[in-house]
Amino acid sequence: MCAHAELSAMRNLSGARHLQMVEAMAARVAVNGFGTIGKRVARAVMLQDDMELVGVTKTRPTYEARIANREGMPLYTIDDKQLSLFEKEGVRVDGVLQDLLTKVDIVVDCSPNGIGEANKKLYEEAGVKAIFQGGEEHELAGFSFNAFSSYDEAHDRKWARVVSCNTTGLIRTLYPLDRMFKVDEAFAAIIRRGADPAESKGSALNAVEPSLHVPTHHGVDVKTVLPWLNISTMAVKVPTTNMHVHCIHVKLRKNGVKTSDVLSLWDQMPRIRFVSGKHGIKTSGQIMEIARDLGRHSGDFAETVIWEDGTHVDDNSLYFYQAVHQESDVIPENIDCIRSMMGLEKDASRSIRKTDRSMGISK
Length: 363
Ligand code: NAD
Fold this sequence. Notes:
Blueprint: H1 3-14, E1 27-32, H2 36-46, E2 51-58, H3 63-70, E3 75-77, H4 83-88, E4 95-96, H5 97-101, E5 106-109, H6 116-126, E6 129-132, H7 138-141, E7 144-145, H8 147-150, E8 159-162, H9 165-181, E9 183-193, E10 209-210, H10 217-223, E11 231-238, E12 244-252, H11 259-267, E13 272-275, H12 284-293, E14 304-307, E15 312-314, E16 317-324, H13 331-341, H14 348-359
Parallel strand pairs: 1-2, 1-5, 2-3, 3-4, 5-6, 6-8, 7-8, 9-11, 13-14
Antiparallel strand pairs: 9-12, 10-11, 12-16, 14-16, 15-16
Helix pairs in contact: 1-9, 2-13, 9-10, 13-14
The site of nicotinamide-adenine-dinucleotide has 25 residues, from helix 2.
C-alpha cells in the first residue's frame, strides 16, 4: 500500500469511515474483581448504550464494596461463605458469582495476577465469554488485544486478554509508525511507577530498582499483538505512583522522515495526546494535574501522552518520551474488546470513537 493509502487507512481509526453497525443488542457484562482496573471498567461499561453492567464482584465488604452499592452496581460475592460477612457489615449483595454468571454474556476478569486461570474454569462451566487483563499470560486466552491493531481479530472470540498498561502505550505509538514508515528496530527504557496510588506496598521509598531479567517482558508482550515488530525493552521501578514514562528509540526504515511527519501521524490517531514542556508540562505529575483540571473521573488520563518537544528525528532515528497512566489506559481497550467479541460493532474506528466519546476522551 502506498504511503497515502496507509495514512487514509489509519485516519479511519480516528473517524472518517462510515460502515454499518451489525446489531443493536446490548451485551450483558459482569466485572469479576472490583479493584483498580475493575471499578474503572465497570463505570465505563455503564456509560455505553450497547452494554449493560449486570454486576460486579468483591471478595470482602471493603469501602469499594460500598462504592459499588453507592453507584448502583449490583454486587456479588465470590462464594456463599462471604455472604453473611457482607450482610453483617450492612453491604447490600445480590448473590454469588455463580448466580451472576447465569445472567451475563461476557465477564471482564479484573482479579489479581494469576487468578484468571482458576476463574476461566468457572466461565467455561457457565458458558460465558471472558476478557482477562495483562497480568495474565497470553496463553490463557490465546489472543491478546489492542483496539488499534487487532479489533477485527477479536470478532466473536470466546477468550481475549487486554494487554497491560505499558504494552498498550507502546502499541499505540509504535503500530502507526510501523504502518506508515516501517520500524526496523525499537528500544524502550521503561521508568515504572513503583505502585498504584492506593497501594501501601510497592517500590522502595528512596531507590531505583532495575528489572534484572533482561530484556524485560514488556517487549515480548508487545509481540503477542504485533509479532513481527523488532522491539526490546528494559525497565526500572521508581518511587512514584502517578504514571509510567517510556524513553523510546526507533530506527525507521523509510528515509527522509521528519519530526513533523511523525507528530502529524500521531496527531491523527485517537488515544494519543501531546503535551509540551514549552507550555509548562515537564513532569508526569503535571499530566495528572491536567486530568484533574479536565474533570476526568478519578483524575484518569486514558490517552498515551507524548512530549511534543521531546520528539526528534535524526537521520532514521526517532527519539521520544511518552507517559502512560497505568490505572486507566487499558479501560477503553476493554470496552472495544467487549464490543468486538460480542459482535456489537464490526468497525474498529466506529467502536473507538463511540468509546472515547462516552468516556470524554478527546484530542
Ligand atoms: P487490584 O488488586 O487493584 O484489584 C483486584 C481485585 O480483585 C480486588 O478487588 C480483589 O479483592 C479482587 N479479587 C481477589 N481475589 C479474587 C478472585 N479470586 N476473584 C475475583 N476477584 C478477586 O488489581 P488491579 O491493579 O486492578 O489488577 C487487575 C488486573 O489488571 C491484573 O491482571 C493487572 O496486572 C492488570 N492491570 C493492572 C494495572 C494497574 O496499574 N493497576 C494496569 C493494567 C493492567
